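Now for one record:
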Amino acid sequence: MIRKPRDVLSLRYALTETPDMRDLGLLLLRIVAGTTLAAHGYPKLFGGPGKRPPELLARVMGPNYPAAVERSGPGFAAALEKMGVPNPHAAATASGVTELAGGLALVAGFLTRPAAVAVAFNMAVATYKAHWKNGFYGQGGYEFSLLLGTVALSLGLTGPGRLSVDHLVGSKGR
């Protein structure tokens, strides 16, 4: 079917018939969720008293990020220990790796489905162990971990779209 140029340029066509819009939407979702996850994973792996993020990372993440990096690391493992998480140091490392590497994998759309499953599991544990007691909304509530976990699960179900490494290499992980 041949379309008239004005039909192709219409908002209705762009929103309902252009497959590229779906891919662009998935890309935006992957970039924002993946960057957020990686930003939370970095301090868990490389943070601690006296530790600072690289200057560019600190500038991009904002003025509160260096303090978050200093509070994390061993502080995160100690918090997990207080929550009764078994083997808190290994759990802290696993959580940090999942958030940093899983977040970067989501951004790139690389091994998207395995990364999404790992992130969703990590966020489910965070929701249950750390945030559930505070309720859905407010300081320490579980809305944020639930949102990130749901986004990851959704990306795992849909795949990353065509604007991804998985698509470029023809990976089954897409």
Notes: The mean pLDDT is 90. Residues 19-46 form the longest helix (28 residues). Residues 28-169 form one domain. The chain has one domain: 28-169.
